[in-house]
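Hey, resending since the last one bounced:
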Amino acid sequence: MPAIARVILAVLSGGALLSLAVLGGMAFWVWRRGGFGVVASALLRSLAAVVVGLGGWFLAILVVASWWPERFASAGLAVVASGVAVGLCVYLAWTRRDASPPVRYGGLAGAVAWGLAGAWLGGQAIEGMAGGLTAILGAVLAANLAVLVVDVGRARSGERLRGRRERLADQVDEWHLRVLQPHLVGHPDGREERGGQQPGAQWGIRPVR
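The structure tokens again:
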């Protein structure tokens, strides 16, 4: 094997291993710690996502070159590999372990699907191998936009839920004032004063003290 081939193989293998290591470390961190902070999440969703997308593309090249050598330089390979890898990276940097399953699954599906769409759009900008780099950038932008949309939808859903709770509390208070309050006179414990007598005095019943 020529020296240049060894260098290319080493670069591709190193990038693929780095990408897998980053994704594995992020998944372990979410499992143990519950998620990343605001600053760490922003860095991972931007800088690390580019590295992971590049490593995913390298891994796809190694796999496809072994089985279909004529297809390893295709633009579609870069789109699929980088879109999926970037989507997973953005999702792991964004998700929280305590989030509800619909939010987690929606974020995962949105990040991967929009990552693929962004990679496809980015790959159309430049032809050839350089299109793989623009595909990665497109995937990063689209995947981050997807989780942002999920965050906005979750915030609106929370506002609607709080509004429903407030309306229910208002209805309960109104019912209390209309139905119960007229029967609660004189004492906060609900006992009525009638002519200065305690309830039951007319039957000779004395309250237990």
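Residues 3-162 form one domain.

Sorry for the duplicate.
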